[in-house]
Design goal:
Two copies of one chain form a homodimer.
Chain A lengths: L3 H9 L3 H4 L1 H11 L4 E2 H8 L3 H13 L3 E8 L2 E8 L1 H17 L7
Antiparallel strand pairs in A: 1-3, 2-3
Helix pairs in contact in A: 1-6
The structure holds a DNA duplex (30 and 30 nucleotides).
DNA sequence: TGAAACAAGTTTGTAATACAAACTAGTTTT
DNA sequence: AAAACTAGTTTGTATTACAAACTTGTTTCA
């Protein structure tokens, strides 16, 4: 069988929740920290508040992160934590990408 | 500066034309052959005709492939060829992905 | 011969999406 | 107490991915 075919299906089967750049960026940050605050996330990603809010909601609906609402003094602070499922999904996504990326300098 | 930030922008700057899985699959096939016929492409990707047609149109509009219409006997046959721009975009995309993928087995 | 089935794509309609503007609810400043 | 600020969410919109239905032509069959 052609060596191309499996790669093609790997491409078409990529997890779309993770594949979206904004969400991949969010998960990447969350994977590197215990927990991350909304405003910090907004600043380093450059996403608008509305857009960030909807992506985190989508990631939460997928079970890939948890939202923690707290107060600092009297100001509300929303933080996010990646879940085990989220970490697994991110690793699986990385693995899929590695599998379909040609080696550097390959035709 | 945090080592995370550049990666984040690499993620958010991914070329959306190439990033879409269906189109990435198409470009991947085209990059491996002189030219590829519509129906062959449809069969190995599993995309519907309509979907394949609109993705190839989008890739053509981006200048990433060329559409060649011919006849085999009296039956029309549409073939596609990746352009230099398309190949460059695909390679750039691969490079960006490599840059942002953590090494295997890294936290 | 002409009707029905088939081939190769394209156009059209639709549901889902990404995104930012506008809004909400509360707090601090003036 | 009014104005300005903070932290997010909801709403509206333009784009998109996708498949169903259509178009144009060819072959088969009655």
């Amino acid at each position: 069988m052609s060596p191309l075919k499996p790669d093609l299906h790997a491409i078409l089967d990529l997890d779309r929740i993770v594949h979206e750049p904004a969400r991949l960026a969010i998960l990447t940050v969350l994977a590197a920290a215990e927990s991350v605050e909304f405003l910090f996330l907004q600043r380093i990603t450059g996403l608008s508040k509305g857009n960030l809010s909807s992506h985190t909601q989508k990631l939460e609906a997928a079970g890939f992160l948890e939202t923690l609402k707290a107060f600092r003094g009297r100001i509300p602070v929303t933080s996010f934590q990646i879940t085990e499922d989220g970490r697994a999904a991110l690793h699986a996504y990385h693995k899929q990408l590695r599998a379909l990326l040609p080696k550097e300098g390959q035709p």
